[in-house]
Design goal:
3 strands, globular, three-stranded antiparallel β-sheet
Length: 79
Amino acid sequence: MYNANNIRTLKKVVREMNQGEKLYINAICLTVNAIEQLREYIKENVLLPDKSEAEQLYNDISSVMSGKTILPQMTYIRQ
């Protein structure tokens, strides 16, 4: 589980992940910069939200999968 709240730690954790690994992020604790970095990772296909989880939590799945909407708590998969 990812508990740190800053961009530097987010970058370190993602950099050390292997393809296919899952990362649970509690976005409530993230700084604004870390949220923006998370959006960039989604747009660049570095991290993708777990689609089955997102479908259970939110109606507008395309917003979640594109990074437009960041859910408060979500699992992401390293691409």
